[in-house]
Amino acid sequence: MMILVTVILIGIWFEHLLLVGPAISHGSETLPIGLLDGFITLGFFGLMIFAVVYFLDEFPELKRFEPSAEKR
Fold this sequence. Notes:
By secondary structure, this protein is an all-alpha fold. The protein has helices at 2-25, 35-58.
C-alpha cells in the first residue's frame, strides 16, 4: 500500500511540475529542475514517513493484521 501511495504522489508531483513548470521557465527549452527541488521533495517524503511512523507508534493495534483463531 505504501508503494502505491508513493507512486501516486510522485505522479501528482510530476503533473504539477508539468503544469507549473512552463509558467516558471519563461520561454526556456527545458524545465528548471534543480538540486533545491530534489531536496524539497525528499523533505516532504521524509515528513510523510515521519507522520506514518508516528501514527503507527500511537496506534500500534493498526500496525499489523492478525486474523483471530475464532474465524478460521
